[in-house]
Amino acid sequence: MMKHDLDFNMEPDFPPNNAYPPKWNFDNEKAWQLYRRAKREQWDEDNINWEEIKEYASGLDRKQRLAIAYWWSLLSNFDNATPVFAYAVVKSFENHLDTAVRGILTTITYDENRHNMVCGLSINNILPGFPFNFKPQDELERKAMLNVLWTWWNGSRYWKAYLEAYNKYTFDVLFTSFMMGEAAATTVFSTMAKGAKIRQFQEIFKNTAVDETRHYAFTHLIMSDNAGTMDDERKKLVTKQVRAGFVFLSLITYLPPKDFWKLPPWFVEVHEKMEDLARSAGFYIPDIKEKEDAWRNAIIRVGSSLKRYNIKMPAMPELGITGEEVFDIKEGDIIPVF
């Protein structure tokens, strides 16, 4: 538009889906409480005594160090969520969501960056250079390295789909899709904090569990604010997304289902071997029963929230839980969050 076409005596028309004009509202008290809580509960990964972790690693054999670095590498596939929430921040401004909701999303972005840093620092102090500058010495090491790389490749599959999700889902469906993952993460990290033998890892997992509890509270807030206006179609999408959250996170928190994941044929065998090696080094990883219990607890929490708004819980046949059958989870259904 040329300058002479503008009528400066009239208020301007702002383009849709734009971060301008700046708008504020201060009446969503539950969201403001959560935003203030997020600021209070921040912690600094630089305050972890990484030298102590390096010293601990120096007393382990090569396979044990590999196993722990392997576990942190797999976790990083899920903790690489900084751009996920950074993009959500952009979209929240374009759509002029509540001021406090936008603020909460900025704190989650910061949280996820910290979680990702912790993954990298843990690997760097236990087995520097893994996996890209790692030279396998035998078949087990080669397969463990490939497990990590193929897990990350699966991560690359859903990134474009995530960017397109904002054209596919409304904000309420998109954010409530995170519920299952956040509920499971809260339980998993709380369990690992209690079981950790190494004090610094105990601190990391305890702090991370606090973050994930807050993230879950955010998804619950979005659910309670929006579920009452969801039509049946959007409710069905939430059911499907809750199932997708289980499929996505099961790789690190349970066992990878056949849906979605494209992994080497040896993945589970080598993964279980790495977990056993990590446990032998004093690095606490829940056993299969503890993982199942964690997921059942998460399902109870999420299920009670969904039931309140007449949203069906998906079936979880892997855990013997009945519900709405959800089939054919694809890239476009996966929301990468933890």
Oligomeric state of the chains present here:
single chain
- How big is the Rg? 21 Å
Series of H and E elements: HHHHHHHHHHHH
How big a fraction of the residues is strand? under 5%
What is the level 1 CATH name? Answer: Mainly Alpha
Which stretches are low in confidence, meaning pLDDT under 50 for 5 or more residues running?
Answer: none
CATH topology: Ferritin
Overall form: globular
Organism: Acidianus manzaensis
InterPro entries: Ferritin-like_SF (IPR009078), RNR-like (IPR012348), Rr_diiron-bd_dom (IPR003251)
GO molecular function, one term: oxidoreductase activity
Protein name: Aminobenzoate oxygenase
Please outline what is shown here:
With 338 residues, the chain is mainly α.
Write up what this structure looks like:
With 338 residues, the chain is mostly helical. It is built from twelve helices and no strands. The radius of gyration is 21 Å and the shape is globular. The N and C termini lie far apart (44 Å). This is Aminobenzoate oxygenase. InterPro entries: Ferritin-like_SF, RNR-like, Rr_diiron-bd_dom. It holds the Pfam family Rubrerythrin.
Show the helix and strand layout.
Layout: H1 29-40, H2 50-58, H3 62-79, H4 82-94, H5 99-126, H6 139-168, H7 171-176, H8 179-195, H9 199-226, H10 232-253, H11 267-280, H12 288-308
Protein name: Aminobenzoate oxygenase
Domain Rubrerythrin diiron-binding: 180-255
InterPro entries: Ferritin-like_SF, RNR-like, Rr_diiron-bd_dom
